[in-house]
Amino acid sequence: MWQQYPDQGWGWHGEWMWWMPFHGILWLIIVVGVVIGVIALIRFMWRAGNRPRAERGGSSARDLLDLRYAKGEIGRDEYFEKKKDLI
Question: Mean pLDDT over all residues of the chain?
Answer without folding.
Answer: 78
